[in-house]
Amino acid sequence: MAYKGSRDRAAKASPARRAALEVGAIVRTRSAYAQDVIAKHVDGSSLSPEDRAFSTKLALGVASSSGTLDEVIDRCLKSPSDIKSDVRDALRISAYEIMFLDKSPHAAVDQGVELVRSVAPKAAGLANAVLRKIVAAKQDFPFGDPATDVAALARSYAFPEWLARRLVADLGLESAVAFMEASNEPAPVFIAVNGLKSSDEEVLAAFESASAPLRAVTFGAYAVAGCYRLEVPRALQGEAVKRLFGEGKILVSDAASQMVAAGVLPKGRKPSTFLEVGAGRATKTILLQSNAKRLYGSQLDLYTLDNHEFKTNLLVERAQRYGAAVARACTGDATDLDAVFPDRSFDEVFIDAPCSGLGTLRRHPEIRWRITEKDIDALAETGFAMLVSAAGHVAQGGSLAYATCTVLRQENAETVKRFLESEAGAAFELDEICGNRVFSTRLGSRSSDAHFAVRMVRTR
Ligand SMILES: C[S@@+](CC[C@H](N)C(=O)[O-])C[C@H]1O[C@@H](n2cnc3c(N)ncnc32)[C@H](O)[C@@H]1O
């Protein structure tokens, strides 16, 4: 038989696959991000560098394609609902290898059988039969013509059909395909030099000495101050580079995030007070202050707000470590700013809005299978409510900035348009950001993530 999956052929599943199985199970049971679980369970493991790389590839691949893999697996099962979750986790790994990696199907089937055996010994026979059917089904994948059938197009890039339809409607077919393709590529690593604690010269020299030169990042004519692409990601493990992290001199942050943090700062005038809404764990807080120091020579009088207390606590700790001053770190609901800051306005309010995060799929591949159309409606509604609530807290002549890391129109341009057409938004006009009326980046090979941002000035 072609794919025996017997104990004599493969005594045990390989360490890389077992690690990927563990990651998949944790991601599923705890609704965790695969990247975070990999950082904890794979990066710090005793696996060889090759096994770590393969395990990471499998774990991220399965996270990004789980829905499509389940559809394929279910097509090959008599009663899909009878399959236990841990058996499905193991089948997904082999199905991913068979459907999306150019690997030998023999090895994938044998290893898949052993993986299933490791969690449910009695299911090994079933695994063998299912995986062999999957090898046969690959011939017909994506079960339709992607040129004429959106469901097949979605399957071929491992996207949910509703999302592929939405992307095609919002971006146009060509850009939607480019977006889906780029979303399945590895994410580049970008470094931000913390201008509060270091200089570009010091950081460049440290990476140079680690034989990992940094490349300055530009968006069109715009150079992003202190933003560099790391061409050799393993340099992050070097001692000199670890020291820079330990001393708060650099942080990892996507280039578009860095561009937004620079772009929301008004040129030529330092805001007297600045409120950052949706401040999370302080990444933009640090970038904002680092950019303020570069641009104005001193930090902002910065207030932050998030609705999660644990994030506010982390923000305070992290901002301190990176030397970023925070006048007051608040926890509260940004859709009701009157309750958090009664009778108080700011020279600038920046909303880093909660969004679907679809522009970051290379880093958080599982998002596409977790997010629903209802979530998109709710997120757009929250973004709009935050804008309306913030409008009353922007001083005359001050500005209101709004940013997301998604590409969907409903969360981006439509929310901003709805705000500008509302009673609260009538006092605002779009102003320039990063040389344009709207800042938006698209995914491409080695590009930044896809972000969106606008800045509006209060004219009356
Ligand atoms: C895009 S994330 C922020 C990322 C963060 N600025 C950073 O740079 O790491 C959006 C943040 O908005 C917060 N958030 C969501 N709903 C909120 C609300 N109603 N009021 C205040 N913050 C909210 C979330 O907790 C989340 O931290």
UniProtKB/TrEMBL annotation:
Keywords: Methyltransferase, RNA-binding, S-adenosyl-L-methionine, Transferase. It comes from the Bacteria. Residues 179-459 form the SAM-dependent MTase RsmB/NOP-type domain. InterPro entries: MeTrfase_RsmB-F_NOP2_cat (IPR049560), MeTrfase_RsmB-F_NOP2_dom (IPR001678), NusB-like_sf (IPR035926), NusB_RsmB_TIM44 (IPR006027), RCMT (IPR023267), RsmB-like_ferredoxin (IPR054728), SAM-dependent_MTases_sf (IPR029063). SUPFAM superfamilies: NusB-like (SSF48013), S-adenosyl-L-methionine-dependent methyltransferases (SSF53335). S-adenosyl-L-methionine binds at D306, D333, D352. The active site is at C405. PROSITE patterns: SAM_MT_RSMB_NOP. Coiled coil: none annotated. Belongs to the class I-like SAM-binding methyltransferase superfamily. RsmB/NOP family. This is Transcription antitermination factor NusB. It comes from Raoultibacter massiliensis.
